[in-house]
Fold these 2 entries.
Entry 1:
Amino acid sequence: MYDLAGKRVWVAGHRGMVGSAIVRRLASEGCEVLTAERGELDLRRQDSVEAWMEEKHPDAVFLAAAKVGGILANDTYPADFLYENLILEANVIHAAYRSGVEKLLFLGSSCIYPKFAAQPITEDALLTGALEPTNEWYAIAKIAGIKLCQAYRRQHGCDFISAMPTNLYGPGDNFDLNTSHVMPALIRKAHDAKQSGAGAITIWGTGTPRREFLHVDDCADACVFLMKSYSQESHVNVGFGEDLTILELTRLVCDVVGFGGGIEHDLSKPDGTPRKLMSAERLRSMGWAPRIRLAQGIAEAYQAFQDGQFVDRKAETHA
Ligand code: GFB
């Protein structure tokens, strides 16, 4: 058991959807939360990261900083997604080793798994097949992050662990229609159509791909749970345990938003992976389960959107 009470805990990426949820969750842990604004610390600069770590000396690190985006952003900016994620995770993980950080949790993504992995996807499916081409750049960077944690554990005895969340949504999401993930895109499209009285919304692709969605507050809770109770080399899936098609999701979002019009398809946009339901078995067997049901979570996310708790960003780095 790694008790966070009294510890200095750095949340790298605290402005992002995941990082800000972890900061909210840590409020009840009795720890001192450290954050760094982007103007103060550029995670892509090794010297700056090492100097910041030497000065602040965190005991524990949540590495939630990442360049993230939806299927189109991943496909459009492969160099940014590969380079920025590789450099920032290498800088933070190496500096954490050098400055003697006691525990580090690295956050990845379910896109690390092969495109046609057997479902539900267990942790040992990693590196058993080819990746989905639209996001292989991001996936390879995230796989490298897992391997960095494992390598520093093996060679230097560092207690660095990795969590792989499924598709996330919630307050603080990116609602820019070109760069966002599907959930905020559907909320915005349904909301705008309702406001303007449009007869239909247009979704990308066929609507047949299946996706699993986890509320970001559940994800943050799982990350804190793992930080406190897990110390092994293998990464751990952080999933919801159920999935649905994009068309089913669209109908659910339209119901929550109160838009009763039609649904059209833009077939020039990619479908991506046909299905990526992760096995939740490992984390469940440790005693953790999600609490926020999908319809309730979407209603909360829509409320947060209406309250202005969102960002409109161009696939920005959460740093
Ligand atoms: O959420 P999303 O962008 O990412 O798209 P992925 C999920 C599915 O929703 C795809 C469809 O089949 C999209 O074609 N979709 C339908 C839409 N309408 C829309 C829309 O208006 N916007 C968006 N964005 N999608 C990402 C990866 O994959 O998931 C990242 O590219 C990362 O690397 C992330 O792993 C969690 O689930 O396909």
Note: The pocket of GFB is lined by residues 70-71, 74, 109, 111, 134-135, 138, 167, 180-182, 185, 203-205, 209, 211, 246, 269-273 (CB under 6 Å).
Entry 2:
Amino acid sequence: MRARSDLDSAVLSAPAERSATAVAVTACRSCGGPAPKPFLSLGSTPVANRLLAGLGADAGEEQQFPLEIGLCEACALVQVTYDLPREAIFDDDYPYFSSFSDSLRAHSQAHAERLIAERGLTSESLVVEVASNDGYLLRFFHEAGIPVLGIEPTAGPAAAAREKGVETRQEFFGLALAEQLVAQGLRADVIIANNVMAHVPDLNDFVAGLAALVKDDGIVSVENPNIWDLVEHNEFDTIYHEHYCYFSTLAVDALMSRHGLTLFDVERFPELHGGTLRWRMGRGAAPQTSAIERLAAEREAGLDRFAFYADFAREVRAVQDSLRELLSDLKSQGASIAAYGAAAKGATLLNSTGVDNRTLDFVADRNDHKQGKLMPGARLPIVAPDALLTQRPDYVLLLAWNMSREILAQQDDYRRAGGKFIVPVPRPQVV
Ligand code: ZN
């Protein structure tokens, strides 16, 4: 057992954000137009990915920042209306390792194989991935003998990528780095940027970098969850400070064309991260039917107009109320409840709904880099998934609902023993 003095000396792992302040956004971060018009506030919450190293109630105070999103009616970009400085968000402890998800690994492999075939990639080609993480995607090109370059700002994942043989530069991507690479004689046949554009504070600098680094006949492939799915399926928990922007195809088209890149293809993956779009751009490429139809559908649905988003806040309140009610009913019946998935979206869900360690006993997560820490705000201890079998909670709130199929399959033993999962969105449901 730990001595009391050990508990007392437990501190937050990252005091860096203590002095950081949120700044109200005064102009659209894409087109530079007027400040985005807010349509959903989730109150004030701590930084969602900032896991705490401390123990229990002794982990110290966390700084809270306002979390609100709005629409730029000029270019259709949904974005946060308060900014945090980048250093408050990313650091060397940034915990996400993509290879921990089986479905993402399969999606990535299929994407790599398709690009290799379709673009005729060879040992003379170059594939660059921005935010290449631990090399989860580039390894498939590398193993096929195609030169790759990963760009990854965080040390842990960058080192893990190099161990796989994936050449990686530990840096943030932008125009300056792109120009440096071009000066070294590097131009990319394919640039991939998956689930990163939402994290970029200076969008135009980022896209200018993509445009500078891609060959004249190369392509840029960008994936990101889609704002239409977010709104339609009440995926409000995917909103957090680290996600500055929430993209529609209309917003991507406006952003890319500003830098001379033409959107020519759109593909939808309804199961991935709650609904993901893959946008493909080239210089002077002719738009295909997929792009033309998607833009028309979004325009018709009104994704570029405030009215489309006006009722979203009410929908979100309804989900939150119903979840609080369900959990409180179960508690009053004497049920024990845990959670699964210590991801950022879980932090938003819990902290914006006001659910914490008084209701939930722990959160299980497969990622051993997260185990032993606490989720921010809600202060749930993160443990290995076998706790579901050893501690047998009656219910498990599935915070990582985007992986529900995979997690429910992995936790079959728990379910067969009578355990039940609660899926929070689009409406709280016991399965
Ligand atoms: Zn704008």
Note: The chain has three domains: 4-84, 98-300, 312-430.
